[in-house]
Amino acid sequence: MSRELTLEEKVQKALDINEVQIVMSKHAYYHGLGQNIEELEAIWTKKAPNATFAQNTGYWVGYDSIMNAYGTIHLANQEAALALLRANYPDVAEDALGAGTLLMHTLTTPIIEIAGDGQTAKGLWYTPGQVTEIGGDGYPSAMWIWEKYGVDFVKEDGEWKIWHMHICTDCTCPVAGDTSWVTEATTSAVLKDTETATVSPTPDIEITTYSSYSNTQVPQDIPKMPEPYWTFSETFSYGAEWIIEKLS
C-alpha cells in the first residue's frame, strides 16, 4: 500500500472487514439451506467483469454461467434427490426440497484484506464441514468435507458482493465407519455422481486448480493468503483472469 491511512479510513476499513465477514457468513447459511439461487441474487456481483466460481476441477466464468452451474443445476439435483427419497419415504411432501439433506460449511481462520481504495477486498477461510446428501439408493449418506475458500469481493452500489470464489477441497470421507480421508484417497477423493443423486456441471474452463489429499500430495499454498494492497490491479486474483488472458 502506498500511503498511511487516516483515522477515518482505518475506521471504515474495520467496518468493511466486518461487512465482508457477514457476506461470507450469509453464503454459508444460504448454501446450508440449499438456497443457491437466492444466494446468487442477494450477495454476488452482477456488474463486475468475469465473476468466477471455481472448484478443484476448473472455473465457471460470468454470472449467467455461475447461475446455471451453482443455481439451476443445483436445483435440478435437489428435485432428483427428493424423487429418490420419496420412493423410500412416501409421506414426504412433493415440494419438500432439501428433505434428508444437511449441508454445513463452517468458516474459520479468516484473513481479510480491504483495498486501500476501499473498492475491493480479499478473504481466505478454512471451512471444516459435512455434507449429508441423498444417495442413488434414495437414502441419506453423510460425508466429512474440509475445504478452503479464497474469495474476492467488490463494492457494488455501496454493498460488498462476492466477485470470485475459489473453493479448494482438501478431503472428504464418510462420517461413519472405519475409513478416513487417507483410505478414501486410495480410491476417490470425492463422492462419485453414481453414489449420489447429483449431476456435476462441467466447468467453462476445465483445469485442475487444486489437488485433494492423496498419500503423496504435498501441502499446497492455494489459495494464497491475502496481502495488503491499494487497488485490485496491484494484487492477484482468485478468479480466472490469469488463464483467460493465457488462452486469448
Number of strands: 8
CATH class: Alpha Beta
Number of helices: 5
State the order of secondary-structure elements, H for helix, E for strand. HHEEHEEEEEHEH
Low-confidence stretches: 187-194
Structure commentary:
The protein has 248 residues and is an alpha+beta fold. It has a single domain, classed as Nuclear Transport Factor 2, Chain: A, CATH 3.10.450. Helix content is 29%, strand content 28%. It has 5 helices and 8 strands. Strands 1, 2, 3, 4, 5, 6, 7 and 8 form an 8-stranded mixed β-sheet that branches. Helix 1 runs antiparallel to helix 2 (36-43) and helix 2 (36-43) packs antiparallel against helix 3. The longest helix has 26 residues, at 7-32. It is globular, with a radius of gyration of 19 Å. Residues 187-194 have low confidence and may be disordered.
What does the secondary structure layout of this molecule look like, with pairings?
Layout: H1 7-32, H2 36-43, E1 52-55, E2 58-61, H3 63-88, E3 102-105, E4 108-114, E5 120-134, E6 140-156, E7 159-174, H4 181-184, E8 205-206, H5 241-247
Parallel strand pairs: 1-7
Antiparallel strand pairs: 1-2, 2-8, 3-5, 4-5, 5-6, 6-7
